[in-house]
Amino acid sequence: MDLPVIDLSPYLELSVNSSGSPANVENQLDPQMKDLCSEVSRILRETGALLVKDPRCSTADNDRFLDMMEKYFEKPNEFKLLQERPHLHYQVGVTPEGLEVPRSLVDEEMQQQLKAMPEEHQPATPAGPDPKWRFMWRVGPRPSSTCFKELNSDPVIPEGFPEWKETMDSWGCKMISAVEAVAEMAAIGFELPRDAFTSLMYQGPHLLAPTGSDLRRYGQEGNVFAGYHYDLNFLTIHGKSRFPGLNIWLRNGQKVEVKVPVGCLLIQTGKQLEWLTAGDCLAGMHEVVVSNRTIEAITLAQQQNRSLWRVSSTLFAQIASDAVLKPLGRFADSSIAGKYPPICAGEFVEKELAVINLKGKKEEH
Ligand SMILES: [Fe+2]
Q1: H helix intervals, the chain
Q2: 300 C-alpha to ligand 1 centroid (Å)
Q3: pLDDT tens digits, residue range 195-246?
């Protein structure tokens, strides 16, 4: 099954023509545009994922970013560990491989759900923590005063990469713009005000968080780079990776291998969106596993003498730390709204990070 691709261009043109005023855009929505927005929210609800085309995010931009990150991940471990910031919960700088624990290994409720799945849709069983590196880079402005300072700390720049800041910031900002457009369209589709989500994203701790997986060491079929999990943020966006391997689970439980067409971006629903819609749109479950298609891409890369690091250009778009997560608008009346009590987004993130092992155990007590 191939996921449909939504072209954001008509919506973006509408925003430009209405001088960015939310009220103007809402008034100008013709039935066709409203249908497109409904389509966005429907796909997010049913699949937890959405493929989009955004003319502002080019293949050349994605390539420039992937080239730089391949060069970085190929550096020796001693070099990369200079960018490690454990005392900041790894929310900036590098996270070494073997640290992030897939939720399915520690969450008993999730383990029960997995056992109940038909075999062909069950996720791969990780042997332990994820064997992937990750680099966290903050994108966009942060609030001048916040109750969650530690999540909003200074960026880390590796030595010998003069292009680092510009490459990270420009690709990060472009992907955030794409997320914002989707967030507006989804809000309209969910019958919420157009800025229902984007107003909460304002000055959020958005993170560009590319992962690096060493296919030379771990490129055997069936190896799990990211065990079955959901993302704790609002929406996640990725540029196309040079090596396939992402599987997602549709709401109906079906497992689907994602094929991102050239020039497209992939968006996934996170737990904060689930909270804001009282579970009308669930956080999308996913995993990254070496498949036969990954092996084909590895063989081709070897023939062409290209890097064998699988880089994902992942950006976690977040709700602002000081904003309150709670079911919005009509979702507040949902029969299961009580499952999603009001909580500061920053506190929610800290709790989730503690579960997946990224927050120092000592600080919890
Ligand atoms: Fe993820």
Answers
A1: 9-17, 22-28, 31-47, 59-73, 77-80, 103-106, 108-116, 164-189, 198-201, 215-218, 271-276, 292-303, 345-355, 361-364
A2: 26
A3: 999 999 999 999 999 999 999 999 999 999 888 889 999 999 999 999 999 9
